[in-house]
Input
Amino acid sequence: MNIGSFIASEKETYGIFFDNYAQSVTDDFKNKYNSLREVVEKKILPLMYENALKTSKLKHSQIKFLPPIINPTKIICIGMNYRKPYPIDGQSMSNPKNIILFGKNSEAMLAHLGSLEIPFGDAADTFDYEGEIAIVIGATARNVSVSNAHNFILGFSAFNDGSVRDWQSHSIHAGKNFSGSGSWGPWITPVEDLIDPSDLELTVCLNGKVVQNASIKDMIFSVQEQISYISSIMTLNPGDVIATGSPDGTGASFSPKRFLRTGDELEIHVSNVGSLKNFI
Output
């Protein structure tokens, strides 16, 4: 069962998702365990499933999606994690020798069906999408080995690392953290519900046209290597999000470049997980 957060009857809640409907935990359960992150921290997902399955089914049209974990302690992004077959601004891009990290603020991230915010002023001219596969951490991870890293994965989601390219060129943090420029969701698919987590495929469509397509196997640094590396620097907490990098096909890679404009529709699909849709 997919898990995530949403608003129902004007109340913020969380629960389980199916293709056409969601079920919230009860008010009593929500009062005892305030957020989905707390449920993950306390390792009581089976108890949450049991509780939510007893409540009414809500059509997706009856709820407002929220980022699956509304209060992660960290959102960490991986840069340059797919091979780039094209030159960028006339320069060929070689594979990085080390994992590249940067952080994302929660304020930058919207949910499924949210309207991405066109940046103010000149920043609007280079507003780009980056479809990615996101990992959500399920247990505290510190100095974990590559071989053991899979044990710290809660599940997977779809992620849009919205980027303002001109700002990114002089400040990664600025270019990656415009308010309402990114999104993730619509939910988290727990790793135990996936037949083969090593076989996920990412497909990104802009206005119905495929612009990005890659397999998780195409990454330069694997999911396990990313978790191990990050945990050697900092503690990964339950509910933390790692965006694993974006493949060829972003707007900056086209000639002429094709950045996001008002009225665009962006859909990021992760196979066997779900589709994240946003409007510009």
Q: What stands out?
A: The chain has a mean pLDDT of 96.
